[in-house]
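task queued by scheduler; priority normal; single chain, no ligands, no partner chains; default sampling; output format set to structure tokens
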Amino acid sequence: MNAIVTQMIILFILVVVGYIISKKKMMDADFDRKLSVFVINVACPCLILSSVMGDTLPDKHFIIPLLIVGFATYVILIGAGFLLPHYLPIKATDRGIYSFMLAFGNVGFIGYPIVASIFGANAVFYASILNFPSTLLIFVFGTLFISGDQGKMKFKWDTLYCPAMIASYLSILIVATGWIPPKVISTPLTLLGNMTVPSALLIIGSSIAQIPIRRMLGTSNIYITAILRLFAIPLFILYLSRLCHVEPAIANINVILAAMPVASYGTLFCIQYEKGETIMAQGTFITTLLSVLTIPLLTLFL
């Protein structure tokens, strides 16, 4: 458990660094926006690809069961995202922000190192496959939630061939074929992918710095959302997994991924669409802080 808490503190420190350097005028809103574009279109796709470019690959027969569990999980999470905000005393125009916070956790940026801390390095590959639906759906439902178009539900076909999705398709193909890329390919992708986590966390910290500190404490709605995102919904998913006799190892990894703090993409999308940045920054800040306690607590139920 000490390793888990340590990992969460390390990641949270990067958010603090982003806050400090923004206060020192080394980052600003324009810089954040440009860096966000880089993370979404370059660094994150490289991270996805590098996650399946190790020297050995696990049994490819696990791919289908992992995908089934992953997609089933996001049916629950997105369903909760659509339904639960209607029961919170928030403005209708803000529901999409809360929907995003409930539906999408920081599985890519924080989830991988946490899974490795709890289950070992070999579990990261399984996490990457379980994370595949998130990669797809966050660019579909995530942008719909943030943009405010969820009532229209117009599917944007270009989502299917955005850089992150192309990287996801290729990662599945690599595992399915068992191809191990040469170092001349995997090393540059790994180096670029490694920029994803620090860049995203610095952006979060910089976004927080642009909001008065007294407003970062959030409202009761933020804390209710945090409890649902970090603890209540993951426990419900764990109950359903055991009810459906999901392989325990897969179920446990999946539950930890479902218990991540609010996805960093939320801040990036809010900057892109220029709406809800304060609420999203509050939710990201508070859930990241509380996850230092809730993730170790959740492991007691596994």
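post-processing summary
- The longest helix spans residues 220-243.
- The chain has a mean pLDDT of 85.
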